[in-house]
Amino acid sequence: MSKAITSRSQDYSQWYNDLILRGGLADYSAVRGCMVIKPYGFTLWENMRDVLDRMFKETGHQNAYFPLFVPKSLFEAEEKNAEGFAKECAVVTHYRLKSDPNNKGKLMVDPEAKLEEELVVRPTSEAIIWNTYKDWIQSYRDLPILVNQWANVVRWEMRTRLFLRTAEFLWQEGHTAHATMEEAVEETRKMLDVYADFVENYMALPVIKGVKTPNERFAGAEDTYCIEALMQDGKALQAGTSHFLGQNFAKAFEVKFLNRENKQEYVWATSWGVSTRLIGALVMAHSDDEGLVLPPRIAPLQVVIVPIFKGEEQKQRIDAKVAEITKGLKALGISVKYDDSDNNRPGWKFAEYELKGVPVRLALGARDLEQNVVEVARRDTKEKQTVSLEGIVAHIQQLLADIQENMYNRAKAFQQANITNADTWDEFVQVLDGKAGFVAAHWDGTPETEEAIKEQTKATIRCIPLDNTQEEGKCILTGKPSKERVLFARAY
Amino acid sequence: MSKAITSRSQDYSQWYNDLILRGGLADYSAVRGCMVIKPYGFTLWENMRDVLDRMFKETGHQNAYFPLFVPKSLFEAEEKNAEGFAKECAVVTHYRLKSDPNNKGKLMVDPEAKLEEELVVRPTSEAIIWNTYKDWIQSYRDLPILVNQWANVVRWEMRTRLFLRTAEFLWQEGHTAHATMEEAVEETRKMLDVYADFVENYMALPVIKGVKTPNERFAGAEDTYCIEALMQDGKALQAGTSHFLGQNFAKAFEVKFLNRENKQEYVWATSWGVSTRLIGALVMAHSDDEGLVLPPRIAPLQVVIVPIFKGEEQKQRIDAKVAEITKGLKALGISVKYDDSDNNRPGWKFAEYELKGVPVRLALGARDLEQNVVEVARRDTKEKQTVSLEGIVAHIQQLLADIQENMYNRAKAFQQANITNADTWDEFVQVLDGKAGFVAAHWDGTPETEEAIKEQTKATIRCIPLDNTQEEGKCILTGKPSKERVLFARAY
Q1: Residue limits of the Aminoacyl-transfer RNA synthetases class-II family profile domain (chains A, B) (predicted)?
Q2: CB-CB neighbours of A290 under 10 Å
Q3: Cis peptide before B447 (omega within 30 of 0)
Q4: pLDDT for B475-492, tens place per residue?
Q5: Class of domain B304-406 (CATH, top level)
Q6: Closest CA–CA distance from residue A69 to any residue of chain B (Å)
Q7: Where do the structural domains in chain A lie, given as residue ranges?
Q8: Does pTM top 0.80 for this prediction?
Q9: Is the peptide bond before A144 cis (omega within 30 degrees of 0)?
């Protein structure tokens, strides 16, 4: 690597950008706020997507695809939702370009090709989908509808950051329709659990499940459930949300069904989504000053093997052994790359794969071969071990599992160490300005107080934990009585 | 099924729409020219996509993702390409809506949120991608770049048809960069072979590989290779294209590399794509008046089992046997559904799964069970057989293979029977107005003649077959000398 990466202590957000760009995950693009997801980053996303997609199907969902564009009149239909997204949506107004008479070789929007109705590029698809469900639902027999969509969406954010906040991003959005409120709420909670399961067991990132305050709710939802993760700088990151939409969209789009009692009733709805933002969380939670640290279960590349040799004869013997190891690993479904390119020295390769966060690196030299051993380096702890080549494949398989577990435990310990109770305003501010993290504090339950705290500290209520214990207390700002603590944090 | 499907003889294009809509593949949407791909249709697309994606990766390609939007200045850069797509592109001009003061509850485009530069919704991604490759390529060591993208694209077509021609569609677009012309041409041909392999061996649809005439080339390409399929109504359908782009985009975006001789050189390019249009081809090529006929290798559902019983006791015995069969099929990776819903009669279910094109249907009754047999119906020939329950799983596995093969052979025979030589203008017109299909005829090689023939007959040159035999002849229109026949047809 030419120059070193910015360290976390030096400049955390520059460190993050260095990892994304130099780790080969993504690039800036010519389009304001939009990024290019590079092959290495996209393979990571594919691995995450494939696991989630399997989980969705195992819970009875099917994929479908709905239009990218939402006609303005549909976009308007659910008022709160429209209000929430109107400020940041890309709008298509014309359907043709023509050559610019005053500017040879250039094009201009053709004023004669103006759309009768503007089209909003979907920031989320409730409107277009519920307008479709209207035609799909007549009786309770047509319910539930359990549909998911993998798609790109556009939200015209003013301040953007690679993966964390981009004008266009990739996500999945589940949109389900139910005959009863109970069933819809159950679906909302079930999908929250699916998200928590995925983020904890595949991304090795512990989360707190909770419900949002009205201020932080999805526009158009009755209740927004979320999973909140903690980054190394003590800031929180919302990793996924699952919304109970009540009958809001059914009413906005007149979606009724004939229930078992033969009565017309509005349909109950949920929606839930996670996005490429998760990749930002993954990077911020686990990586270090040498580069990315990726969990084995979703890493684009799990094992890299670097040969160390002088001359063809040595190389051939190493190649033969590597072919044998590679075969064994692939048979177990472990991805492996043999980097015997002669462009770079081993030392350069070590740094490169450290930067890219490959969980396990093998370095195999001629002398190792004679002694029937190999150097095995794990990315998470940077420990190196000399291991016998006997049963090396099984050793690596176990090591990958250990790394996955260790990464989770490390992140879990960090999370636990960074949930702090604050009982007074001074304590509250002190923690926020100190180690930060989650601050568990009492709040009087009013949006006004929530807003005031946000203005004074930039901290928001991340969630009211689902497993909260009831406890008498006083609001840290107003001193008014409160029955439970809520989790505050500064967040991405 | 309420009312019967329109028959092919009655109204071929209505028949097609009936199958798409009532077969549950897709729906019209509120957005002009855009469709909703329903779960059954999307599962079909997923199956096709997964096979193609595997083939791309086996040929060394990786997926990536590039922005949905193309700034006008980039869109303009490659003139031919811009000219080709300017007439049909959706243009984003604003990034915000605001509430309409004169129209309570309504929104309007915020004139203060006008973009400095308009953004074109990608109709294809060469421009945005080559503008990015510029930063990725310095020396021959950075080549080749073998990247594919699965994405949605928008082309503002005036006349649209479900799957065949929609304003928004899903596709994959491969974009590769090479150090030499030879390597780029080889890639172009290789991907054409991948497409032919997929369409013939998975979609059971025989194709003709060829090269397009300059008139029919992709805008910005040096050469466009294609695979052409034949529909049951004698019209041709372009099933996939692979383009050799020469150095056109490299020159438009100044993408040079340092070659082995240490000289700066422009990069060589290819692009290739297939889209959800393939689903339209699949439907038109194989289906019949009872509904869809889907090839087992990509069918969303391969086997359906319908129980025929009176009373719980009978049903329980059938359930037990079905559980056993289902277990066996799933173990072989065969998808199966047991439809024991009591909403509908067996007869209704038979018609429903025929409409949906499920390759194999089992009907299992109480008496069958006593005799240890089951009724097996295959969708392609509609033959029914009473088969012993002994080894039924192996029987079904073989039957699915037979159906796949039979569907291909049937389509191949149809294709062969519908390639007709025409040596005079009268013969040419006669065939086109008669059985249609491909007409192999001599052409003087000029765009003018090609255009004149198109105007008079609506027939276009689908391709110059790659395996063409050289043969002296006279152009059917001008009588001028010609060295080979080209394939004409009316096309979708």
Answers
A1: 30-295
A2: 18
A3: no
A4: 999 999 999 999 999 999
A5: alpha beta
A6: 7
A7: 12-286, 304-406, 419-489
A8: yes
A9: yes
